[in-house]
Design goal:
163 residues; alpha+beta; four-stranded antiparallel beta sheet; two-stranded antiparallel sheet; 8 strands
Length: 163
Amino acid sequence: MATLTLQDILAREPGLATRIDTMTELIAGVPASKENLKTLLEHLMKQGETALEGTDQTSILLLVTKQRKKKEIMVRVLGKAEVMRWVHGDYNSRPCVCSEVFPCTEDGLLQGLLYGKQNRKRYREEGPCPDCVRLDESLRPVKKLKAQGMPKCEACMFKAIVA
């Protein structure tokens, strides 16, 4: 499968750039050019991971992974911290509300940044699924984004439909 370019993404998703702070620019005055994305990708590959903290207690985690000799960028959107009770103490942990894998290229990095921004915005506006809970106190909290236009995440919607 061929990697999509910025123009392919914008052509397939009309209005995407205007909905997400015009990602034709990384920040005001800095274009999302191949050269700029290459510089950021090299830094990410050197670091291995980068956490992008939001002012709203959420974050986007970018990880470089290697699957079968192929490098990929895993993007995780982490929600607000929740208290987890373990046998040896209480800890704050952030649930992963969504994650996706992208090719380890300049276009893949841009797609990942768009994915992270869009889903963090959805989390801020809609919140997590109200039915997702911890399965066991020893496990990490489970919270997912609500499905587009629905009151629950996809898994909880299926459970509610067949209940």
